[in-house]
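Input record (Table S2, row 222):
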Amino acid sequence: MSDNKRKYPGLFITFEGVDGAGKTTQAVKLQQYLEQDCKVPSELTKEPGGTALGKAIRQLLLTTPEEGAPRIDERAEALLYAADRSEHISEFVYPRLCKGIIVISDRYIDSSIAYQSGGRELNEAAIEGLSDWATKGLQADRTYLLDIDPTSARSRFETTRVSDRLESEPEPFQDRTRQEFLNLAKNHSDRIVVIDASQDIDNVWQQIKTDIDRLLQHYKEC
Ligand code: TYD
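Output record (thymidine-5'-diphosphate complex):
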């Protein structure tokens, strides 16, 4: 658990992974478990789009050119994700952590490093520094990285909906993104738990549940 845990009574949990990995399903399961079985206060949120400003930014970021979106330079894209994150932390996440709430976010800083640095090949230190500045250094206490081959992940959503701007990027982009997530997990093994997301939903959930039960013991002692 990172040092910033001691600065507030809540717990900040994030879900990461390539598109179609199943983050949203597991984040919802976790929130239900915390509320119903553990009786601890928790809230679910996401990036981009966890605030009113974030929703406007999300619209800009994810609409495809075919849908009439403006061109977005890759650095402008990185700045827009950071702007969304800054507002999200100051308006939504941090005030709740201070009240002792467990905040679960569907994506956070690791997504910027994986997509903008891994996928877009922008400088990693610059991307990390940008998010660090935008969030005043707030890090997740625990991150679940749902790891899966991007091609298999794509087949999960491809038939049911149209791909957004990032999802429309070619295979090498998606492969670099996955690899960067795995590099992050290697370098932050105290925070990031890697889970094989090719397993069925219940098996993935059992692994998260085992870890969160351990984490909760510590949280309740604080
Ligand atoms: P997400 O909300 O997970 O997609 P959906 O709800 O459509 O499944 O993420 C939106 C996209 O934004 C996703 O392709 C990843 C991308 N993204 C970045 O490129 N950088 C970031 O910092 C974040 C948070 C997301």
